[in-house]
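Complex 148.
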Amino acid sequence: MWFFQTENGMFCIRYFREGYGLFIDAEYLSWQRDAEGAAKMVSEHRTGHKPWDSLGTADAPKDLSEWKLLEEIQGAANIKPTHDPIVVPLDCDCGHQIKESVARVRILRKFRCPACNKDITVGDKQLAQIMEKVQQEYPNGLIKSLRK
Ligand SMILES: [Zn+2]
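Predicted structure with zinc ion bound:
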């Protein structure tokens, strides 16, 4: 599987119906006998995806060698996955600590300690403290998405 990131989306070439399918994000564009043929469609701006095709000659990959393999994409994703939930520790009265995502803490507010089965409730004040701490530790973009 090969990928090429553009401003219009992520092109993907993968084995499909005994040939190779060209996709942008999850949208199927065309079928080619081989992966090189699919890459050529992108190089020549003949993909069927209008925003890309209308760019003419802008920043197209010359051939498949300029595409990234799935393994390279996954390697990059392992460094800093942006979709990872922000996790915060919550303390149980008896000293246990559990970890929950901020999104779950904000919505549920009430958890159960798996060690002693006691309730762990997050009050308004504690939630405010958690959000303040998260805000200091994480970039603005993530906080914006949390506040929605
Ligand atoms: Zn406990």
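Residues 15 and 21 are 6 Å apart (CA to CA).
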